[in-house]
Amino acid sequence: MPVTQSFIGGRSIPSTETFPNIDPATGKSIGDVARSGADEVDLAVAAARTIQPEWAKTSPEQRSILLTKMADAVTAHRDELARLECEDTGKPLTQAYADVDVCARYFRYYGHCIETYYGITIPMRDDMHVYTRREPFGVTGHIVAWNYPLQLISRAAATSLAAGNAAVVKPADETPRTAVRLAELIVEVGFPAGVFNVVTGLGAEAGAALTAHPGVDHLGFVGSTEVGSLIAHAAADRVVPTVLELGGKSANVVFADADVDAAVPFLVKSILQNAGQTCSAGSRLIVHRDVHDEVISKMAAAFRKTTIGVGVDDPDLGPLISKKQQGRVRDLVAGISRGTVVTGGTIPEGLGDGSFFAPTLIDGVDPSDEIAQQEVFGPVVVATQFSDDDEAVAIANGTDYALLAAAWTQNLSRGHRMAQQLQAGQVYVNTYGAGGGVELPFGGFRKSGYGREKGFEALDAYTQTKTVVMKL
Ligand code: NAD
């Protein structure tokens, strides 16, 4: 069995202990993963600390050239990376290819941005020259989820490296291979060894060691709200800034004046993409009673047409990440006390030992029900009717999460009102998500997290402001 090993200071580091990398489509092992821990984290942080001051002295132009080369390298290895991502996560091959393309785009985008990222001058008084500098933190630690490994790592690391930090990444236990491949490519294109390091391993071991490490100056976390809270506590103990990208329970609000035929493909994709294992999944459907029956029947028809299978065969829907996740989704659906399961609700038959779950539409839930409040992280959407705009807004804003929201309406004023009233880090009107949305600041309100990744604004999250005051 091939072993995926940590990549630290420009080379692979073997670990004596390993754990299996399970293919979620078959339940079988496709290799072993080095179970690195505190020792490897120490090594990685030391490698990053050693090189970071030198890296920070490179010019924005030099960093830009390397980041752009890395974008080209990702594209040149498109087939290989998509295949690895597809097998590790279970996602359909087309979606894995899209993730590779977005990954390349992050490196290119931040390669471009960093050349136009400046401090400001402040006209305080004629005899004072005042300006700000945006300076790197030093070593940034990144702990990410398994659902979009290439995207999550590149959106954080490209930003961090562009700003002059050095990074240590702990990929999710289930999906280590593309992280390690990115680390190898980063060295191949000419980044100094140690600027980008990957430590494979388990959350409670390698993840916890990275979080607590005194040599880490900034933490970026993408994952569940529960673990995010642990990370924030550990960071607070050391007074280290964090970006927390956490869970969601995002709503599509469909008004009576919506163009239903234009909306339905987005409503479907927003919950079925990556088998619903997307932080920004459109997992709640809040629909005006006048168009309710039409929307439900059109979505149900689309759900029934969905092809389900092994990711590399490129169906519409692949498996969930693990048996554990499959069991969780099944139990949440089985536990509903109100509502009707219009389609799905079960583990589809005849698909072997993979962790599949059928596309599921549950209508008539109460907004307070567990299934309407908790992040299911599966291909499950719950629908609720409303009668007026205020009611729609109250339902949409009525969860602890606030990551994304979308309003579907042909009334321009209503669209703008919704953009103000819907509480979420991103609000869409007559669309949902935006093909990776590299340029769009992304992050949550409330328990969906804090800080922003993506877009120009993310450079602020990965730098600190120094104000310089000079008496003339
Ligand atoms: P998770 O919180 O279980 O794990 C995330 C990462 O944290 C993994 O790398 C894991 O190994 C690590 N980890 C686990 N315990 C740890 C500990 N004690 N100390 C340090 N690290 C630890 O989340 P998951 O199940 O991998 O991912 C699903 C969650 O991620 C969902 O809630 C989803 O919404 C969220 N997510 C959010 C975004 C976003 O940008 N907001 C994007 C993708 C996923």
Automatic annotation (TrEMBL):
Region annotated Disordered, chain positions: 1-26
InterPro entries per the UniProt record, alphabetical: Ald_DH/histidinol_DH, Ald_DH_C, Ald_DH_CS_CYS, Ald_DH_CS_GLU, Ald_DH_N, Aldehyde_DH_dom
All copies of domain Aldehyde dehydrogenase, residue ranges: 16-468
CDD domains to which the protein is assigned, alphabetical: ALDH_AAS00426
Active-site residues from the entry: E245
One protein family per Pfam: Aldedh
PROSITE patterns: ALDEHYDE_DEHYDR_CYS (PS00070), ALDEHYDE_DEHYDR_GLU (PS00687)
Protein family according to the UniProt entry: Belongs to the aldehyde dehydrogenase family.
Name under which the protein is recorded: Aldehyde dehydrogenase family protein
Organism from which the protein derives: Saxibacter everestensis
